Amino acid sequence: MNILDTDKGSFNTTQLRFLHPIANKAWNLRIDLPLVSANTNSDNKTGIGDIGAGLSYIPYMKYKDEGIAFRARVISNSAVDPALGSGKWVFSPAFFFGKYFTKNILWITSLENQISFAGSDNRNDINLTIFENYFMYLFGPHWIAGDVALRYNAINKGYPNNAYLEFGKRITKNDMAYIHPSVAFGNQKSYNFGLEVGMLILF
């Protein structure tokens, strides 16, 4: 669940994410089903948002402590109400590099572009480039992480950046929970403050 405070109100998203390895397990299928609640000055609505699906490929591990990955996602224009989605079909390719500096410290950097290719003519096009860096420190069943995402919106020439801290714990062998508060910065930012709480369940 992700709660975002904006100048116009709040947006709350509860997202069900399904990840499944396929083929030789170098490939992963991802499906995102969001339930969005918009509580703004003009809209107070709740319903299914834009459903997304993607494929990830981890082709190369130079050493046991580093590797690269590729991901391609399509986010559909499937929200049940215009206030709950972008009104656009979006294609989003991404590249990742990850490295363990020690067995307890992990760094993941990524470069992603989100670009719309179809959808409502009455909604703004999407062309967003994201450069992200994530650092995780593991200790016992716990972890602490920090993330900074630098964004450039080519449509409105804005920089809707954000950063967050994450605190997580492995509850059982297959279950993990986390919480992370976030803050947005830069001109044309899409929200002010946020709070995300999540749980990972491995099958």
Describe the structure concisely.
The chain is mainly β.
Give structural notes.
It is a single chain. By secondary structure, the protein is mainly beta. The protein is 0% helix and 71% strand. The protein contains no helices and 13 strands. It has strands at 2-6, 9-22, 27-40, 44-48, 52-63, 66-75, 88-102, 105-119, 127-139, 142-153, 161-170, 175-185, 193-201. The protein has a 12-stranded antiparallel barrel. Strand 7 (88-102) and strand 8 (105-119) form a beta hairpin. The two termini are 21 Å apart.
Distance between the termini: 21 Å
Mean pLDDT, to the nearest integer, reads 92
**Helix content class:** under 10%
**Helical run tally:** 0
Oligomeric grouping of the chains:
single chain
Task: Please tally the β strands and state the result.
Answer: 13
SSE-based structural type: mainly beta
How would a textbook summarize the main sheet? 12 strands, antiparallel, barrel
Strand content: over 45%
**SSE series:** EEEEEEEEEEEEE
Strand order of the largest sheet: 1-2-3-5-6-7-8-9-10-11-12-13
Give the secondary structure arrangement, pairings included.
Layout: E1 2-6, E2 9-22, E3 27-40, E4 44-48, E5 52-63, E6 66-75, E7 88-102, E8 105-119, E9 127-139, E10 142-153, E11 161-170, E12 175-185, E13 193-201
Antiparallel strand pairs: 1-2, 1-13, 2-3, 3-4, 3-5, 5-6, 6-7, 7-8, 8-9, 9-10, 10-11, 11-12, 12-13
